[in-house]
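User: Fold this; tokens only.

Assistant: Input:
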Amino acid sequence: MIAIAGCNKEENFSESIFVDHEELDPNASTYQFDLWLNDNFLKPYNLSVKYRMEDVSSDMDYNLVPSSLDNSKKLAQLIKYLWFDVYGAMVGDDFLKNYGPRIIQLIGSPAYNPSSGTIILGTAEGGIKVTLYNCNSLNYNDPDMMNEYYFKTMHHEFGHILQQTKSYPKDYEQISAGNYSPLGWQYMTDQQAAKLGFVSAYSASEAREDFVEVIANYLVKSDKDWNNLLSMAGTDGATIILKKLSICSSWLKEKWNIDIVKMRNEIITRQNNINDDFFNKNF
């Protein structure tokens, strides 16, 4: 009420303190890369890709190291090709302009939790910021590693953003209600988790993580890997996983007009295009 009362449509406001673009130094060694980031993320999506270490925007609870410049360049191109361009092809560029994050932060090391023996691979904060960790371990010749540490994490964290914007069906939480273990999931093997109807051990931590893990795993796994998961789960576990996938698929279609099968095919096709020749050599 105070803020509204303090504004007058006839007031003359001074020039905004915010700028539409980041000022770049043409003499900087990173100028061409920064220019590419501006042209491919900042201008079209109002999104800043932060690859330089900023302690003020990093989680001070962890000992972290910066992402190397070379890996930052590669990951930025992968993020565009395997995330932003995919959504652009499926639901149009305006989708990520409206719902995408405003900051993507790249961190070189994982965030270790020594008390639990776990690591954090990514976070999504309030639909605004996505952080990807372990960037210095990037190996684009290892698709399984890429999926586990980056591609799946990208779709997992963006799933949280979508989930925070439009709630997922509450009946989803009842499917595995008795098997979630916020503190014990890290002691569970993937096979044990699969037999309980989870696509990963981390899925067993809580329902909202389970929901986006189903989406992320389905999007990046090949037919062979997905069928291996269902086989490992056994009849009962596979039935639960497929029931969860059906709910996730319907939610994406009804709430976001996203066909998860078509999107998965697009992602897997693009993954197969990643090789030495894929990356821009000009910056």
